[in-house]
């Protein structure tokens, strides 16, 4: 059984969680804990403009993959795209170390179906801040993909691969960063970087920041902010969270109209993810961006 739990680090199908759904298997979450602890290595490897740039760049790119594709595309089908682009952004999203696109979409769809009710896996009003922030993500009861909610995605074998071997893309990213850093150390010593430095900043620091940036939508965006729209849940609009998550902080807007590709309305509600999606649409990589429901923008005075 212990071997199977260790195997689950690389193969998500290796363990079938049983028993208390709120139980957190410490052995299984060792990689999550080590990733946080490894951030302290910045005091050992030092810093450089190259490493900090890598951390910021990979935070933004992977956050966009989560917000634009894991959330607005895979979870809500807010636009259409080709199978190759779907797979590319699925890989980028998997590099965020938030499991596969099918897992992410299935749990998010379940959240919308039960938002802030007893069945909601991460309502801060039902389960408290820390559970809503990250406890639910680590718990046995939420370890498996809710297959019945993502039958539309399950027909793609490449997405099933990303879901089952959800550690594959993070490993690819981590190894690539180390190799690039080692190459730069040898060929461009003036950059003052190294394999370990780029690994710590570009992967560890950036990923932990990405984790907690994303998690704030579950733990804080149902508590702090404004509620311009009447929804059956307690979702809020929050500018600070919108800036951290490239537009996801307009959470009350989103719960009012989940299929809309646009979540922020007007210049007072910046939505970087939507701007990026418009750019991808201009390039012909995506299309059929779903607009907010009729009258929604007029209600906000920005139509």
Provide structural commentary.
By secondary structure, the chain is an all-alpha fold. The chain has one domain. The chain is 56% helix and 1% strand. The chain has 16 helices and 2 strands. It has a two-stranded antiparallel sheet with strand order 1-2. Helix 11 (168-187) packs antiparallel against helix 12 (195-219).
**Number of helices in the DSSP assignment:** 16
Order of helices and strands: HHHHEHHHHHHHHHHHEH
Using the CA coordinates, give the radius of gyration: 19 Å
What is the topology, as strand order, of the major beta sheet? 1-2
The helicity comes to 55-70%
Approximate shape: globular
Give a short account of the largest sheet: 2 strands, antiparallel
User: What number is the mean pLDDT?
Assistant: 93
Tally of strands: 2
Could you list the spans in which at least 5 consecutive residues all have pLDDT below 50? none
- Work out the strand percent: under 5%
Report how far apart the termini are.
58 Å
Strand-pairing-aware structural class: mainly alpha
What is the domain total for the residues? 1
Summarize the topology.
Elements: H1 2-7, H2 30-37, H3 42-45, H4 49-75, E1 80-81, H5 83-94, H6 101-113, H7 124-127, H8 129-138, H9 151-154, H10 157-164, H11 168-187, H12 195-219, H13 239-244, H14 251-256, H15 272-282, E2 286-287, H16 296-300
Antiparallel strand pairs: 1-2
Nutshell version of this structure?
The protein has 16 helices and 2 strands. The longest helix has 27 residues, at 49-75. The chain has helices at 2-7, 30-37, 42-45, 49-75, 83-94, 101-113, 124-127, 129-138, 151-154, 157-164, 168-187, 195-219, 239-244, 251-256, 272-282, 296-300; strands spanning 80-81, 286-287.
